[in-house]
Amino acid sequence: MDDAPAATETASLQGILCECDLDWKLSRDMWWIWNDRDGFAGAEYNDFTNKWHLQVVDLDGQAATLERIEGLLRKRSRIANVHLSNLAWIHSGTFSQHVAGRFLKGRAALLGDAAHVFSSVAGQGLHFAIEDALNLGRKLALTIAGAASPALLQTYETERRERVDNAIQETRLTKSLSRCKAGA
Predict the structure, then answer these.
(1) pLDDT per residue over 32-71, tens digit each?
(2) Boundaries of every domain in the chain
(3) N or C: which terminus of the chain carries fewer CB neighbours within 10 A?
(4) Strand 51-57 and strand 108-109: pairing?
(5) Cα–Cα distance between 49 and 95 in angstroms, integer?
(6) How far apart are CA 26 and CA 98, in angstroms?
């Protein structure tokens, strides 16, 4: 679909992501982020699975285990008695993001992860996929109903590209903050 190469960034940060239970009493209504000299840790509660999503920068790149992420979370959050259990899944890898050179070509359109994959650092993937579907779906409905010119469909590329570019900038900022050394 795309004549132009995808714009690709790969950060030098290794991280661990997981979904599990935590025994702390922190609010489930906000995204928790902690930093120390080696990076950040973040936690947010997932109401659909009734578990916590955790992500941590792991500069040592050791094996992704529940014990490893628990140790990094304790160190970064300074909550010494937190315990993780009932692991649903765990993943380690490099934080990266990819964006297609074009979202529209002829009668084909890219949406969601086919158009853009964001680093999980900012947690934007599903939200953007839903925005893409709503944006393009509304334009298609108006065009098919004859209430708008087919040229309206071309605005999908412009509108979504601007939104994606802004998200990439936010992710770059988040990544750069995660590399900041404490006291620097």
Answers:
(1) 989 887 778 899 999 999 999 998 877 777 788 999 999 9
(2) 14-95, 97-178
(3) C
(4) unpaired
(5) 24
(6) 34
Of the candidates 118, 173, 111, the one whose C-alpha atom is nearest the C-alpha of residue 139 is 111
User: Yes or no: is domain 97-178 CATH 3.50.50.60?
Assistant: yes
SS3 label, residue 43: strand
Residue 98 pairs in a beta bridge with 8, 117
Structure confidence by residue, pLDDT tens digits, 97-127? 778 888 999 889 999 888 887 765 556 677 7
Strand order through the sheet with 39-46: 32-36, 39-46, 51-57, 7-22, 84-99, 116-117
* pTM metric for this prediction: 0.54
CA angle, residues 30, 35, 39, in degrees to nearest 5: 120
